[in-house]
Amino acid sequence: MAHFNPWHDVERGEDAPKVVNAIIEIPKGSKGKYELDKESGLLKLDRVLFSAVHYPAAYGFIPQTYCDDKDPLDILVLCSVDIVPMCLVDAKVIGVMQMIDQDEEDDKIIAVAANDVSVNHFNDIADLPPHMLLEMQRFFEDYKALEHKHVSVERFMGREDAYRIIEDSVKLYEETFPKGNPKDEEDVKEALS
């Protein structure tokens, strides 16, 4: 049975890679790690964070993208209000945080909510207050420490690098899912294997 899946059925955005549609899975301040269940398209509680930390920004993914970790491309969206899970946000891309998670590259696009005047004046990651980047880095380096998993933030890079990473993930998505939304569970399993 065909069903709606936010990963495959939502456009990535008319102005991508500059402004993308971000689908939020986790609101800022959460200790719950929610993620899209790839087969059903519903939001699933993956786990409650072990450490005394919480997400420093709204966290989600860019639809119709795909990365080497077999997931859509991750995005952090800075906004002055809490964004509820499964909300679609116009996200202006300003940079990228490159990390290594369990020996795998794991890029996180950094963006600001395009329709929030308190943050949409930021045009590049260099414009952000240094403590914001430090907070993001500390969160991602610490949030798995009590699970004895190693995460290291390699570097922050500007928006041009972020655009290139988004374009690469779009290309990989189109190669992996040439017909768009896999219509049944077998198609999903085949594409993700």
TrEMBL record:
GO CC aspect terms: cytoplasm
Residues holding Mg(2+) 2: D74
GO annotation (BP), single: phosphate-containing compound metabolic process
Compartmental location: Cytoplasm
GO terms of molecular function: inorganic diphosphate phosphatase activity; magnesium ion binding
Binding site for substrate: K33, R47, Y59, Y143
Keyword Metal-binding tagged: yes
InterPro entries: Pyrophosphatase (IPR008162), Pyrophosphatase_sf (IPR036649)
EC number(s) per entry: 3.6.1.1
Cofactor: Mg(2+)
Entry keyword annotation includes Transport: no
Purpose of the protein: Catalyzes the hydrolysis of inorganic pyrophosphate (PPi) forming two phosphate ions.
HAMAP family: Inorganic_PPase
Quaternary structure, from the entry: Homohexamer.
Family: Belongs to the PPase family.
Name of the protein in its database record: Inorganic pyrophosphatase
